[in-house]
Amino acid sequence: VVTDMTESGAQLFARLDARRCLKDVEPRLFPEHGGPDHGDVVELHGPAGTVKTELLYHLLCRCVMPAAAGGLEVEVMFVDTDYSLDMLRLVSILDRRLTGSPGSPSTEASLRSCLSRLLVVHCSSSSQLLLTLHLLETSLSSRPGLALLLIDSISAFYWLDRSEGGASIAKQEEKLSKCSHLLARLLRDYRITVFATCHAIRRNHAGPSASSEVPRPYLCRPWQRLVKHRLLCSRQQTVLSDPATSSEGERRHQVFGVHSTSSSFRSQWSSSFYVTDAGVQFA
Known about the structure:
Layout: H1 2-16, E1 41-46, H2 52-64, E2 75-80, H3 87-99, H4 108-115, E3 118-122, H5 126-142, E4 146-152, H6 158-165, H7 169-190, E5 193-199, H8 221-226, E6 227-241, E7 252-262, E8 269-276, E9 279-282
Parallel strand pairs: 1-5, 1-6, 2-3, 2-4, 4-5
Antiparallel strand pairs: 6-7, 7-8, 8-9
């Protein structure tokens, strides 16, 4: 009985006292005071080429950087299901941001310190993703500084699961449903924050307005019930000149948009950004 009480106390401390809230992880993506709370899931949805992974890099850097450089100094787990994580790109962004922060000069030691707060896991199937989430509980129990889970992407195995499930919708959605139920328990017990990208899916819509229609959720209902905030990423028509360019002003950037909606707040929010060597820059 004493052992059980000791374990319960450790878990209670890990999930209630030490886990940091990430409401301020990026105010420019959410309405005022409308950022993700403890236990919230944020879905980044949009077609290919809308740099959803770059937004994850932006959030990751903000979390692992030291407070002196404007970071949150929390640990992050990055679950890479698309095998698209570019560590050279990530280190380059971190290096440039640390160099530009007067309170934290960029050195090999400072980069190592930031990267020590990052855990990376690669998954090649829904079964591996489920196993990863089971193992995540061990990490959450022993690492109270682990506050953010990034999944890129949650829909990576959608077509594979559909193929393996045959004609049965329940079989097609079984693995992701199990992942969602397990994640719901982890969110409840350890109060982490989750950001997950989701691919756009082609649908047969008739009419000229089909291309402008807001994508509808298509993943299983257990996952849809988890999502509290939805960020719709898009490519905008305008191209922005870089204010820090040379006198020729030749360098220009494609502008992307993010439209934020939340089940917790009635207000909506839109913002624009472009991508540079230093990562995401908001317009």
